[in-house]
Amino acid sequence: MDQMAALEWIQKDIAAFGGDPENVTIAGQSSGSMSVSMLMASPLAKGLFQHAIGESGGLFEPLQLAPKFLLPNAERGGEKYAVSLGATSLQELRGLPAAKFTGDGGGIVHAVIEPYVLPVSPYEAFAAGQQNDVPLLIGSYADEARALTAM
Predict the structure, then answer these.
(1) What is the sign, positive or negative, of the torsion defined by CA atoms of 126, 132, 135, 136?
(2) pLDDT score recorded for residue 108
(3) Residue range 26-33: mean pLDDT, rounded
(4) What are the residues whose beta carbons fall under 8 Å from the beta carbon of 50, sequence distance 6 or more?
(5) Which residues, at least 6 apart from 49, have a Cβ–Cβ distance to it below 8 Å?
(6) How far apart, in whole angstroms, are the C-alpha atoms of residue 27 and residue 40?
(7) Is the pLDDT of residue 149 over 90?
(8) How far is CA 71 from CA 44, 97, 109, 147, in A?
(9) Does the pLDDT at position 10 exceed 80?
């Protein structure tokens, strides 16, 4: 939603900086490419950009390979995260200092398929041709996963 808010600002104000709101390209690499996938799949992002580039990543796997993306599973993960922070209620979470949420994370760090922003997974949106209909350039860096082979 923060990325869509930034794109809305661009649509409203970019002309004042010499930009063209009818010629906006979103681009991302790795997790940024996942954001590109989600923006393309979200009906709320329709009309906010006209071109997209996703490099070395994306979010195109079917939900059978990523069940944690489903809302009930993400909610369970969020509850576990809250407990790990010492909070058992939303009120207690809101009372925690911001520093408690920085560092190694541990919270939900992936997409969540839910009715408002992502009513269907990016995989489903693309498979059904329901994604935002803009040109998409995708690619990968050569040997980018070579560092992972030792693992």
Answers:
(1) negative
(2) 64
(3) 93
(4) 22, 23, 24, 25, 134
(5) 7, 24, 25, 26, 39, 132, 134
(6) 11
(7) no
(8) 18, 26, 13, 32
(9) yes
Q: What is the four-CA torsion angle of 61, 118, 51, 131, rounded to 10 degrees?
A: 70
Are the CB atoms for 48 and 8 separated by under 8 Å? yes
What is the enclosing helix (H) or strand (E) of 138?
strand 136-139
Full strand arrangement of the beta sheet holding 136-139: 25-29, 51-55, 136-139
Contact 69, 121 (CB under 8 A): yes
Give the H or E element holding residue 54. strand 51-55
- Supply the pTM of this predicted model: 0.83
Q: Which of 19, 23, 25 is nearest to 39 (CA)?
A: 25
